[in-house]
Amino acid sequence: MSEAALVLEGIEKGYNRGKPSEVIVLRGATLSVARGEVVALVAPSGAGKSTLLHIAGLLDTPDRGRVVHGGREMGGLSDRTRTEARRAEVGFIYQFHHLLPEFSALENIVLPQLANGVAQREAEARGRDLLGRVGVAARADHRPAALSGGEQQRVAFCRALANAPKLLLADEPTGNLDPATSEQVFSALMELVRETGLSALIATHNLELAARMDRVVRLDQGRVV
């Protein structure tokens, strides 16, 4: 277990427990991601992949089961400790970029670092370096509205990696893009992940993209198969 970046063991999660409207989303889901491994999580819409990612990223807690990051048990931690662990160790990318519209591309990457105690100059240097790695350095001073969809998502990648997390979680990161842009953005993401040696769990419905990752797992009826 110490060799894994992430271990999810017997994860169960439901909503409206004990009520007629009860919905069971995860039924003993078990999954591990090795250090430096990129795993594709394939599932149809509504199968629970977002819930699984939120639990893996400490945004939600399971009803039962264990969440382990780098050999460290996450269950039973205080909300404050979970928040600190999430900020320091986990990066998130969503289908929609969720960039702050009033700030430039660079500022969107700098702000998470400032919140984590990084000095302004250092944060800006890292931000520009990340933007350069995904080919949008020239757009650093543009606000999200002035960027294309593909450029916005690349900036979102950089923001997710701003604090040098150990684990990247992505929920349909190219699902809102046309096929050509999706290919460009996915290639940029994979190059960035490989360069930084990240472990990553990437949910996608695109089987061609999934096949280019190290391993593909499927979420079916609340279990990982």
Count of discrete alpha- or pi-helical segments spanning 4 or more residues: 7
CATH homologous superfamily annotation: P-loop containing nucleotide triphosphate hydrolases
CATH architecture: 3-Layer(aba) Sandwich
- Largest sheet report: 6 strands, mixed
Quick take:
This protein has 225 residues and is of the alpha/beta class. Helices cover 35% and strands 26% of the residues. Helix 3 crosses helix 4, helix 3 runs parallel beside helix 5 and helix 5 packs parallel to helix 6.
Describe the structure.
With 225 residues, the chain is α/β, with parallel strands linked by helices. The protein has a single domain (35-61, 76-224), classed as P-loop containing nucleotide triphosphate hydrolases (Rossmann fold). Helices cover 35% and strands 26% of the residues. The protein has helices at 49-56, 79-89, 105-115, 120-133, 149-160, 179-196, 207-210, and strands at 4-15, 23-34, 38-42, 64-69, 72-73, 90-93, 167-171, 199-203, 215-220, 223-224. The chain has a six-stranded mixed β-sheet with strand order 6-7-8-3-9-10. Strands 2-1-4-5 form a four-stranded antiparallel β-sheet, with helices on one face. Strand 9 and strand 10 form a beta hairpin. Helix 5 (149-160) packs parallel to helix 6. The radius of gyration is 17 Å and the shape is globular. The two termini are 19 Å apart. The relative contact order is 0.20. The model has no long low-confidence stretch (mean pLDDT 86). Residues 6-225 form the ABC transporter domain. It comes from Paragemmobacter amnigenus. InterPro entries: AAA+_ATPase, ABC_transporter-like_ATP-bd, ABC_transporter-like_CS, ABC_transpr_LolD-like, MacB-like_ATP-bd, P-loop_NTPase.
